[in-house]
Amino acid sequence: MSTASQPTALIKTEVLYSGLFILGLIAPFAIYPTFLMKLFCFALFASAFNLLLGFAGLLSFGHAAFLGTAGYVCGLMVRDVGVTPEIGILAGTVCAGLLGWVFGILAIRRTGIYFAMITLALAQMVYFVVLQIKATGGEDGLQGVPRGHLFGLIDLSDNIAMYYLVYAVFSIGFFIIYRTIHSPFGQILKAIRENEPRAISLGYDVNKFKLMAFVISASLAGLAGATKTLIFQLASLSDVHWHTSGEVVLMTLLGGLGTILGPAVGSATIVTLQNELADKVGSWVTVIMGTIFVVCVLAFRRGIVGEIQALIQRAGIR
Amino acid sequence: MTVKKLISVACTAALATLSAGAQAQISGGVVKIGVLTDLSGTYSDLAGSGAVLATKMAVEDFIAKEKPNFKIEVVSADHQNKADIASNKAREWFEREGVDTATELVTTSVALAVMKVAKEKERIALMSGPASTPITNEQCNDVTVHYTYDTYALANGTARAVTKQGGRSWFFLTADYAFGQALEKDAAAVVTANGGKVLGSVRHPFPGSDFSSFLLKAQSSGAQVIGLANAGADTTNAIKQAAEFGITPTQSLAGLLMFITDIHSLGLRTTQGMYLTEGFYWDLNDETRAWSKRFFGVQKKMPTMVQAGQYSSVYHYLSAIKAAGTDDTKKVMTQMKKMPINDFFAKNGTIREDGRMVHDMYLMQVKKPSESKYPWDYYNVRQTIPAAEAFQPLSQSRCPLVKK
């Protein structure tokens, strides 16, 4: 049975992904590009977070620190040092990765709620630093970051050009996550998530794998943050605030924890709601989001994508 | 020959219809005003839905009084105090929906983000809500009008007046971040310049909730005045706790950034005797009372200076479009800077080259509960601070647009 269904399932996923990819290529002609760009940034951010929570079972409550740090670093590099955007993004990503390594070393020594609290505490320190030092502009945020010219050639102030850069960044990030999950490394992460003592007894250096996963996740969150700064030409304090760390948990749970497309779907839902409801219901946005979250947690435990997958599976068995 | 003639006739006809259609050259045939404000967070009381209402009132009044030959539309959105949401929305408004001006913009990070987008898209930003002085200094541009107030006007107005009226020794309670420190620095300079003395200051974490140890320090300093160099919930919490510690009757508090909504929520018992500077008070004269009562009829709250300023700025903007006969950004800005502002909100207000609208400010002292005769009767007007003194003089401006 499995020999026959495995290849067809693979082909189906390939068709699904290529379909989505093409959809993304033509999307800016139908939907407002700046909105789409924001959506992709959060989708990448949530996917990076999901790599850690959904596949390694580590709940980080400090992911905003990576998003924000990379955003500020990228913004400062592009605005004040005058590097091209791709160098800025790279610098932001590397800094987020390094920060992730520091966070990781300290946090992976504990599990569960302690792990979450350590990441939160460290992220709050980052928030404090960003609020206090002069370079980040305190609560005014880092403003007036030019989009610049990609490789010194392509003018990114054009929304469509910017869109394709963001889309490329997202696709690369997403591909990295996809490959990580489907590699032997990803399998070991899943093994650790399911049963850590057994993974240890099989001879795996669990902490090394956890740290690796943490650094990859932090770097990709940073990639999203750096790109976001270029899109909006600003980095603001809300990027490093713990609200953002909470929001990414919400996005991931809503879309489907531990599914590949889930976080992207979840973040798309949240960002769309935030954007669309902003001028329609005003202060009810937060109430509506809260309700959606409660309903999702109570009724669709697996999240949007998780439920759909379960439905398809059930249909397949029949 | 005939063909040529035909073409020229056709061209003339086309030109004629074009010029007829563009009588008052309004892009898209409609002036669209976007109110980008905080509808759900900390500032929703002092701006929020009241600012949207004020905008609608301004548009209604303008149509009724001036009978313009163009249509006016108002759209609004909640920026949730997030700069990226605000920047996204403003961009969408300018690029997609033909919005001509983004207004209100409370929260400095939002204001700074939107004014950059406005400059890029050559549209106008009318700011009634934000407080920061960088808007008309380092970050200034030629499409922004900072209308109602700023931290300089509030802090300096209060500090100068209180010092002159005998509050000679000061102690500052400062929120420990750039904004609080700047507020303290500005106010302290004014205190010393007017013959007062700063005995010291203490910095509290931002945001803070427990001010006990900081307040005790302030109390033991023996200063006559405790200056609150913070904002929002920090200020209201500090005031509440100061009352509980029994500081307020012996030492007086001076709020450097406060609004009537803060007084309303704290009550007169805790705030009595406090000095603060406002750009508007509903109970100043018949004109302000008449307008404010209309506002109250819908909102069930008296207007703040931000909301009154919002009305005034929108009305002035529309008048400028009518006078200029176009909604072209450059021409409207020139017209707005040329015309003085005379309405219930401001008398002889003018918009300077740095985008700062200057008008008289008022030094208020909060009434004792026994003095308050009717709802929202909160202030005694102690002094009118003339426009020339109220705002940062152009000679100190750090705005590159100002020619020295």
From TrEMBL, chain A:
<protein>
    <submittedName>
        <fullName>Branched-chain amino acid ABC transporter permease</fullName>
    </submittedName>
</protein>
<feature type="transmembrane region" description="Helical">
    <location>
        <begin position="113"/>
        <end position="133"/>
    </location>
</feature>
<feature type="transmembrane region" description="Helical">
    <location>
        <begin position="248"/>
        <end position="269"/>
    </location>
</feature>
<keyword id="KW-0472">Membrane</keyword>
<feature type="transmembrane region" description="Helical">
    <location>
        <begin position="39"/>
        <end position="67"/>
    </location>
</feature>
<dbReference type="GO" id="GO:0005886">
    <property type="term" value="C:plasma membrane"/>
</dbReference>
<dbReference type="InterPro" id="IPR043428">
    <property type="entry name" value="LivM-like"/>
</dbReference>
<keyword id="KW-1003">Cell membrane</keyword>
<dbReference type="Pfam" id="PF02653">
    <property type="entry name" value="BPD_transp_2"/>
</dbReference>
<feature type="transmembrane region" description="Helical">
    <location>
        <begin position="160"/>
        <end position="181"/>
    </location>
</feature>
<feature type="transmembrane region" description="Helical">
    <location>
        <begin position="281"/>
        <end position="300"/>
    </location>
</feature>
<keyword id="KW-0812">Transmembrane</keyword>
<feature type="transmembrane region" description="Helical">
    <location>
        <begin position="87"/>
        <end position="106"/>
    </location>
</feature>
<feature type="transmembrane region" description="Helical">
    <location>
        <begin position="211"/>
        <end position="236"/>
    </location>
</feature>
<keyword id="KW-1133">Transmembrane helix</keyword>
<dbReference type="GO" id="GO:0015658">
    <property type="term" value="F:branched-chain amino acid transmembrane transporter activity"/>
</dbReference>
<feature type="transmembrane region" description="Helical">
    <location>
        <begin position="15"/>
        <end position="32"/>
    </location>
</feature>
<dbReference type="InterPro" id="IPR001851">
    <property type="entry name" value="ABC_transp_permease"/>
</dbReference>
TrEMBL record, chain B:
<feature type="domain" description="Leucine-binding protein">
    <location>
        <begin position="31"/>
        <end position="367"/>
    </location>
</feature>
<dbReference type="Pfam" id="PF13458">
    <property type="entry name" value="Peripla_BP_6"/>
</dbReference>
<keyword id="KW-0732">Signal</keyword>
<protein>
    <submittedName>
        <fullName>ABC transporter substrate-binding protein</fullName>
    </submittedName>
</protein>
<feature type="signal peptide">
    <location>
        <begin position="1"/>
        <end position="24"/>
    </location>
</feature>
<comment type="similarity">
    <text>Belongs to the leucine-binding protein family.</text>
</comment>
<dbReference type="InterPro" id="IPR051010">
    <property type="entry name" value="BCAA_transport"/>
</dbReference>
<dbReference type="InterPro" id="IPR028081">
    <property type="entry name" value="Leu-bd"/>
</dbReference>
<dbReference type="InterPro" id="IPR028082">
    <property type="entry name" value="Peripla_BP_I"/>
</dbReference>
